[in-house]
# Entry
Amino acid sequence: VSTPATTWATSGSSPVRDVVALGDFFCRRWRAGVGRPTPDRPPLATVDELAAVVASGRRVGIARLREALPLIREDAWSPRESRLRCLLHDFRLPKPTLNVDVFDDDGRFLACLDLAFPAQKVGVEYHGLMHTASYARDVERTARLRAAGWTIIEVTAESLRDELALIRRIRAFLTQETGALAQ
# Structure
């Protein structure tokens, strides 16, 4: 039986963004928060374990594995969010904070944002097909965030088809909020 780290290391022939998404899945730390299932569940693997497997010998796609390793995060929650985060990285946008709990001025929970730039109050939310059933709740949640001063950039599979347009849109909001992007 293969360990999660060894299983991850067999993905080296896949695109880097997919290798990162798989690494994110294996290394996810389940932290406590509003409505989160199974807090404190241990990850399937650690980044150190993935690094050890890469260092242990020859692998198919070793260059991709090495490229993906520093991009793996312990707080990513979905493959599409991982790919979106890699896209931001590829275009040298600032590193977002992942799965940020947002509260209003009275301490009421508003939402957990997929990717956030808290200093600028800019959130990036990926809406996949699984969100179809929760569309009305998502609309209300986004309205509450906007009322609290957050700019929310909604991303779908369709918007990911034109990566340059999506990056321009995100960059424009970050630039608008900060006056200039730090490189």
The first strand starts at residue 97 and ends at 103.
